[in-house]
Amino acid sequence: MDQKYKILLVDDDETIRSTMTAILEDEGYSVDSAPNGKEAIKKTQEQSYNLALLDIKLPDMEGVELLKLMKEPIPRMRKIMVTGFPSLQNAVEAVNKNADAYLIKPVDVDKLLATVKEQLAKQEEDKKFDEQKVAEFIESRVKDISADQV
After folding, report:
1. Could you give the count of Cα atoms lying within 13 Å of 131 in the half-sphere of its Cβ?
2. Is the peptide bond before 106 cis (omega within 30 degrees of 0)?
3. What pLDDT is attached to residue 131?
4. Local structure of 59: helix, strand or coil
5. What does pTM read for this prediction?
6. What is the fold, at CATH topology level, of the domain defined by 6-124?
7. What CA–CA distance (Å, rounded) separates 126 from 5?
8. Average pLDDT per run of 10 along the chain, which is 150 residues long?
9. 3-class secondary structure per residue, the chain
10. What's the rounded Cα separation, in Å, for the pair 72 and 83?
């Protein structure tokens, strides 16, 4: 992995945080964690993350509320909801509030790693697309300015 991706893991269960952190760090990711929504919000204000793994049930707020409150870096941080309480309502609400994926606890390690890898690849695609759009905008503005000076 040529770039060290930064992941924020938000779960109130210390065992889950330590286990998932070890799994992700073994894959070469840089992992930071938070036990609640308030700390997760603070962390996203202090630094940028490529991806966040968010528990739906947190002690201080619902994970879907946290989706809206975390600061977004550019390119947009990918967000994966993780729950031990799966329901269609949870899944629909998470997707409607910009979750990118949804995993059910106990999380299968292969499924976790595949989902993280897939979401980071999508973020890279978004980044390339954004850079291309900026380049096209600059190119068109240069042409407009040049045409105005003639």
Report:
1. 7
2. yes
3. 72
4. coil
5. 0.81
6. Rossmann fold (3.40.50)
7. 15
8. 84 96 98 97 94 95 89 81 79 73 93 98 85 77 76
9. CCCCCEEEEECCCHHHHHHHHHHHHHCCCEEEEECCHHHHHHHHHHCCCCEEEEECECCCCEHHHHHHHCCCCCCCCEEEEEECCCCHHHHHHHHHCCCCEEEECCCCHHHHHHHHHHHHHHHHHHHHHHHHHHHHHHHHHHHHHHHHHC
10. 22
Q: Give the start-to-end residue ranges of the domains of the chain.
A: 6-124
**Residue in this structure with the two tokens 């999380």, named with its chain if needed:** 107
Q: Which amino acid is at 118?
A: E
C-alpha triplet 76, 37, 125: angle, nearest 5°: 15
Best CA proximity match to 11, nearest among 72, 73, 78, 60: 60
What is the residue type of 126?
A: D
Residue 77 confidence (pLDDT): 93
